[in-house]
Amino acid sequence: MITHALRLAAWGxxxxxxxxxxxxxxxxxxxxxxxxxxxxxxxxxxxxxxxMRYGVAYMKxxxxxxxxxxxxxxxxxxxxxxxxxxxxxxxxxxxxxxNGKRARDHRNGRLLTCCxxxxxxxxxxxxxxxxxxxxxxx
Length: 138
Description:
Layout: H1 2-11, H2 19-31, H3 33-54, H4 63-84, E1 89-92, H5 103-107, E2 112-118, E3 124-129
Antiparallel strand pairs: 1-2, 2-3
């Protein structure tokens, strides 16, 4: 009976702009709807348990906070996996407001920008390079 109520509550979060709604949508993309509903219902059960057992107040968080947490975790895992693989540098392409990667930008001789993260020091450098495929032809 309680499990059914928790699943209904979890399903109601599908369009919510809260932390739990973002969690449900992410799990749904990873696991599929039935398992995501179960995982979110389990998370709701843990929240209720902590409210009742320890008197810990629920702190409502926004969707952006969850997205930031996920992004930080993914960055940390990426750097850890690169270090384990023996990489000394990690090249990551990023969206920067400097140049776009459009055909007209290449025709006009604009450069591409990439980000290099040194895994040993944690230093980030941005470098511009010209893509030889789109170099000006004589």
